[in-house]
């Protein structure tokens, strides 16, 4: 998709690409600023190359305006999601408590995995799955 965006940008040219600049920059910006663990470095490099191509194509001033608007939109979305999450913890404390328990459980599992990778002889205690007990209908 990034290669397609780059090809379309070059094909449209400087004047016809300007109205679509923010639309093209949005996924590129998202890929550049993502920090998830399984990130592909080739995608990051490709998005950086296409951003440089767009910068040369439309000029620094137009590019800067479009890029800053994309940044602003992303920050607003992030702030809105954070605000909604905070409001949800107040409005639905049971859902928030479940989420917190799940996060703590995942944190403990991650810690155990990390210890096992550092010390292979050590086997951390795992939570036993009571599959039959979970399937039973308890009233």
Automatic annotation (TrEMBL):
The U3 small nucleolar RNA-associated protein 20 C-terminal domain sits at 1-116
Q: Which InterPro entries match?
A: SSU_processome_comp_20 (IPR052575), UTP20_C (IPR057525)
Superkingdom field: Eukaryota
Q: Which residues cross the membrane?
A: none
Q: Under which name does UniProt file this protein?
A: UTP20 protein
Organism of origin is: Dicaeum eximium
Enumerate the PANTHER family for this protein. Answer: SMALL SUBUNIT PROCESSOME COMPONENT 20 HOMOLOG
Name the gene that codes for it: Utp20
For this UniProt entry, what's an example GO CC term? 90S preribosome
């Amino acid at each position: 998709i990034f290669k397609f965006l780059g090809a379309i940008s070059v094909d449209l040219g400087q004047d016809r690409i300007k109205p679509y600049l923010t639309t093209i920059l949005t996924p590129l910006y998202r890929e550049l600023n993502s920090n998830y663990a399984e990130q592909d470095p080739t995608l990051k490099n490709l998005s950086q190359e296409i951003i440089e191509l767009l910068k040369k194509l439309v000029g620094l001033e137009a590019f800067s305006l479009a890029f800053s608007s994309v940044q602003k939109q992303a920050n607003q979305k992030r702030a809105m999601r954070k605000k909604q999450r905070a409001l949800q913890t107040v409005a639905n404390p049971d859902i928030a408590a479940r989420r917190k328990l799940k996060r703590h459980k995942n944190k403990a599992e991650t810690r155990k995995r990390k210890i096992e990778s550092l010390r292979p002889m050590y086997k951390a205690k795992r939570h036993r799955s009571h599959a039959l007990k979970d399937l039973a209908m308890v009233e």
